[in-house]
Queue: 4 jobs
Job 1
Amino acid sequence: MNQYIHDLAEKLWHYHHLNHTLEKADAILVLCSYDTRVAERGARLFLEGWAPLLIFSGGLGVITRSMWTEPEADQFARIAMELGVPAEHILIENQSTNTGENVQFTRQLLAERNLSPETFIVVQKPYMERRSYVTFRKVWPEKHVIVTSPQATFDEYLSEYSNPDLPPDAVISIMVGDLQRIRLYPTKGFQIPQEIPDDVWAAYETLVEAGYDKHLVRD
């Protein structure tokens, strides 16, 4: 990856970040994926006392169904327990395949358990903070939510955090696809709208032209 592409991708990275300040909550909701560092982040937050309940949500999505056979949430929960989170403080939702289902199916699971957390800390990959937030706000608007992620710079994430089966170019393509969804999905009823600055969208268009288009929504 040359420096020009790197800088364009980093612009998207910063836009996807929300930089929310952590607040104590009723539940930590970890949105699972290929990135097991997200599981570690959720477990650490629980162990630090930010919330008394830790929920893992994720079956096998577009990316992980070609990598794994065990649902994401089961793998993430096992990581949390290995780090010291008691099993009785963990809930697992392992049927969802996208962000909207993560929230919807978690809502159903909590209702079945007669649990009604009012405040959530959502944990996700760094470049999916914004998309997770706008999806949660659309699907479950009456709840208060803040979003966090593994604490890493763009370069640290590409070199240390991301799954070894996904090279940096693949991660950039995923970021590009997520930005497209932030623009498209409000009209489909999947997310609340977000303003996208002109320079961020211009970076997106240049990256698409450069071939980082593998995760775009195709009409």
Job 2
Amino acid sequence: MSDALILDAHAVLWSGDRDAVAGRPLLLLLHGYGADERDLLGLSAYFPEEFTVASLAAPLAPPWPMPGRSWYPIDGLDGRNPAHVTAAAQAVIDWVDAHAADAASVGLLGFSQGGAVSLQALRLQPERFAFVVNLSGYATPGDLPGDAALAEVKPPVFWGRGTADDVIPEFVIEHSTTWLPEHVDLSGRVYPGLTHSVSEAEIADVRVFLEKQLERA
């Protein structure tokens, strides 16, 4: 993937006034594989109202007949290549620099692929993002230049996943379980019986986490 990815600014959906970013905490939503910018926006009703919420559209189209968008390929011999995750994360950073540079703070909430990209963006620029919420996602294997700085900063990360999730490969779950506590201030929960999805209990936990981030600001 030699060409830089660019997110479609016109596809971004906002929970309120898109011009009300300046001076306010911003929460970016990154959907999963085969979904789109509409998928997670409904969750914003359960989040603290202090946040301006923007739901981004991933830059790629998955192979037919899969609907929606994708942040990086997962099919073929080059599927789940860490470089693809990094390229998607850089695209998120570029969008923030172009459209939300005046936000008081920026947090990321991603589901599945979106969770992996959120963590990768945090690794690329540990000082840029206030926190990450990683739902049914993972930390991408491999080293990045910012990992040492990340381990020094240890920004807060919430990781939620279900015991019945059979989508995310076990080896990346094992990697994430070891890697995350060494690099971030990790909190979260494993939800019995939850599949590759989000539950009411998980969203309630996410709200508590977000409220704590507002207190820290």
Job 3
Amino acid sequence: MTRDQDLLSAAALTAFKLNGQFLDLAESLARPAGLTAAWWQVLGAVLHTPLPVSAIAREMGITRQAVQRTADVLVDRGLAEYRDNPAHRRAKLVAGTEAGLAAIKAIGPDHARQAKRLSGILGQEDFAAAVDALRKLSAALDELDRGGSAH
């Protein structure tokens, strides 16, 4: 294997592990607010602006079907609602309700504590550099997906 292949494999395995770690953390933060990590993810995407399911899926990197199932559950539980979309008659917008936004707000204090703890372990500068590196990696994978020449 080449060095590039080793790096791609290491990046993927690390991302898979990180995904599991972040999901575990998200579940532990969301549970006391009566949410799951998936519910929090979808509600968080529409916290400030209602979006169609397809836009939430693109932003979150998950399937449209998974977002649709989650949105349906959130609507059934009164945590979100569907609104008419002026740009597209059939693609309704998902918006958080007062109950959904209150649940998200309830996560805030524990979220802040965990963020502070992680920043304390990494140091704020290294934490920011890690986030920047993850964003660059994600953008490069997007470019690769589009058939571009990821640098």
Job 4
Amino acid sequence: MIDHDVLRVFCDPGGRHGNELAVVRDGTSVPDEAGRQALARRLGFSETVFVDDPERGSIDIYTPTLRLPFAGHPCVGAAWLLGVPQLVTPAGRVTVRHEDGLVWIGARAAWAPPRTLREYGSAAEVDALPVPPPGEWVYAWAWQDEADGRIRARAFPGRDDGIDEDEATGAAALLLTAHLGRALTVTQGRGSQILTAPGPDGAGRPEGHDAIEVGGRVRRA
């Protein structure tokens, strides 16, 4: 098996939970796209990152079934592991900053894969949802405290690849932040925490010019 690190991304304040991520630091050990896709499928994480240039922060991201130009939790995890000021993805340059034990990335909502944002009336309704059959990618969410910007969410990728529910999904939280136009604290899955902060003047929307920031805590699995 190819050497790789396993991280938990978007842990709660106590360091628990988080979405597991595989990072292959030596991306040259798996140079072709078919080999990377096969390894991501064997590892079985929601995403696997291949580092092509650790100094530049150049990365390549795969789910078990497809390659992604950009994804949130792989970028946050890779930024933490590599300690770089930016990442280079096929979608574009992702800014990175570290503050108070959190890793923040800046990206545009237009880079995120399409998601269905489905609002529910309460956090309890979201908690009670069954896993839907394969189909559309659904981000189910409800306000926990609208005045305070606190959200309860669950993510259902809708793929037939063994990943029925994503524990923490930065790209979906980015899209929700663009949709609502405000900073959010998202509790997703079993208790993972995602923080977001929109930039000024419609930042992060496809017509905007600035990036929305997505932040969280990272631990080794």
